[in-house]
Amino acid sequence: MKTINRINIKWQQLFGEIKGLETDVQNRICIETEVIPIILVPGLMGSRLRRRLGKTKIWDPDDTLFMANKYGKSSATAAKRKALLIGSQFRADYAEVHDGDRRHNKRFTSQHDSNRARRGWGEVMWDSYGEFLVRLQEHQWSPPLNACFEFPVHAFGYNWTASNHDAGLALKRYIDRTTGDYQNGVYSPDGRKRKCNKVILVTHSMGGLVARSACMLHGAEGKVIGVIHGVQPAVGSPSAYWRMKAGFERPRCGPTREWWDWLRNPLKMAKHHLLGHLSAVVLGTNGEEVTSLLGNSPGGLELLPTKDYRDNAGNRDWLSYHGAKGEVRLPVADPYEEIYLLRGSAYRMVDPEWLAPGKLKNVPVGKKGPWQLYSGYLNQAKKFHNSLQTYFHPESYQFYGTDLDSPDRVEFSRRDYSHFSRDPFTHVDLRFVNKGGFRTYVDKRDWPLDMGEEADAIVTLGPPAGKGDGTVPDSSAKVLPFGEERTTKIGTNDGSWFEIGHQDIFRTSRAQEVVFTCIWNLTQKYIDEQVVPINAVESR
Length: 540
Known about the structure:
This protein has 16 helices and 21 strands.
C-alpha cells in the first residue's frame, strides 16, 4: 500500500498550484532548489599575492611578521618594496593570487563546510573580510528564500597591481567557471548536479570597479542577478593623489576632533592611533614609498579621480594651489594631462625619481625609462576610465561610510620663505621629514626644490578635510544613480567612529545588515521574474 506520495517540483512551482497531491497518504514535496553563489570581490591590497614564478609570498596582510619584516622595517626602503611587489618593471603576469596556504586557511576550516578553501576564502585578507564571510555563509534566510535557493559564499582574489580591465575579465571567467562547476556537481560530495545560472556580487572599494568591468566590458552582466557595492570609489578618489604626494595619513584626532576624546575613550583612542600609525608605516610612510608602488601599477592608478569626479560640493576643480601668480584650480577638463603628467610644478603628483627609487637616472638605449612606463600605465588607466565611465549593473545597490575626514579635494598653501627664517626644517632635505604629510620648497617659478637655500616660498599640502570614510569621499561613493532606495549611508549614528573606516567597513554590523537586506531584495525580484512567466504559461 502506498504511504508516501513523492512529488518533485521546481522551486518556481511553489508559487503556483502544486499538482499531484493525494488524499489518505503522506504527500512529500521535494523541491529542486537553485544555487546562487554570492561572490565577494575585495578592494585594493585585499587579496594575498605571490610571485607566479617560484610561488614566494609578496603580499600577505594576514601575516603580521611578514608584513612588518618586508614593509615595516626602517630598512624596507622604497626600492626594496618595489622590487618585492612589482619587480624591476611591472608585468601583469609577475604576481598571482596566493591560495592553498593550509596554515592560513585553518582559521576558517569547518567540518560542516569543507569547500571554503575551494571557494576562495583563503585568497583574501581575513582580518578585513573573515567575520563577514562567516556571517554571510551562516545567515539563516527566511521563507521563501530558504526553500528556493542555496547561497554558497565565494571570495574572488585578484592581482590588484594589474588593470581592473584584466581583473574584470578574470572575474567574468570565474563566474562562468563557478556556475559550470555547480551544474557539473563539482562542489557536491555525491557529485549531484544542481541548477546554477546566476550569481550575486558583493564588492569592497576597488572591487566595485572590477565588478563593473566584468559586467560591462566582458559581458558578465547576464549572469549577475545584481551587485552590492561597498565604499566604492566609483569615479576615483583624491586620496590616491594625496598619498602619492604625502604617504598614508596618520590618525590626527578622535570622534569629536577634540582633545577630550582621550579622556572619554582612552583605550580605543590609543588602539586607533597605534594601529593607524603602524598601518601607515606598512602601506607607505611617505610619497616615495607609495609612488614607487602605485605609480608602477595600472590598478593603483585607476583609483585616481576620473574626468567625471566632482568634490563633495559638486566642483570639477578638486585641486587648488595658491601660487606666485595667483590661484590655480584644476582640472579644467583633463586631470591626466593637467595634473597627473605634470613634471615641474609643486603640485605635480609624481616626482619622477620616485618611480624608480635607488636606480640610476640613465636608461639603457632602446628601453623605456620610468617616466615613459608611468605615462603608459596612466594612459591605460585613462582608457579604462573612459570605457567604464559611470556604467553600473541595472540591479545595483551601494553603501558608503561618512563622517570621517577624507580628501574630497586637495588644497595647497604657499607662504613666503622669509617667514620661516627660524623654521626647524630650513636647509633640510624634506624627503626625510615628509611622513604622512607633504611640504616642499619652491623657487619663484613655483618649481619644487629639495633644499631651502634658494627657496622663494614653502608649499604645504593641507590635511584631508571632507566627509567620507577616510579614503573615499561621499561624492564618489554615492555618484552612481541608484536612487535613495538603493543607497545607504553608514555614519557615526550607525556604529562606532572607530569601526566605520574604509578598510574595516565590512566588520560593522550595519554594513552586514545592509548586505543581507540587499540580497533579499535582489532575490525577491529574481523570484518575481522567474515565477510570473511560468504561472502565465500554466494558466493557459
